[in-house]
Amino acid sequence: MIANNKYSRNQIDKLGNALIYLIENMGILPKTSLLKLIYILDEYSVKKRGFPMFNLQYEIWKYGPVCQDLYIEFNDGASLLKDYIKSEVIENATHISPVNSFNDDEFSDSDIAILDSIVTTFSGKNANYLVDYTHQKNSLWYTTASKNGVLEALLNEEINATDYKIDFADLVAHDENKVAFYHDHLEFLNFTASLNQR
């Protein structure tokens, strides 16, 4: 279960509606696919605009990158996201389906364009494809695991999860202005989230 004070109402609404959008446009999806797609949305947003769509933290897991809070939310049954999705076991796999219709109040035109791009690119791709996509050489998952000495252990299935976090700033490290913009935007998101929690 996600801690109530960790995310702002706007973050929860945006994440919940993004999940609905993905499912409405791609069909009921297994948990691993949705975990990957949410990560890919954040990564793609940083590459394209210099800031993440959701501002979630992702850890280096065997099938990661994974937002641990979202993983727990899917496995334990939606609590904070209960107005948006439900989890159910179908053929020994957890699948996520919407309980509401998509609402675009929290989304800019740029957000919708990114969602559409991800839907177009990854529709019909299974969870194994998405894991392989996020684990490519030079991906943030691969370079972070390698830098922290856990790559071989993850690939050889000696460990399943780590506490090492993805740093999206690495995607824009080649451009000082984008790095500064990225950090300024995160500071702004964290500040507004703290205001919304009061």
TrEMBL record:
InterPro entries: SocA_Panacea. Residues 34-141 form the Antitoxin SocA-like Panacea domain. This is Panacea domain-containing protein. It comes from Flavobacterium zhoui.
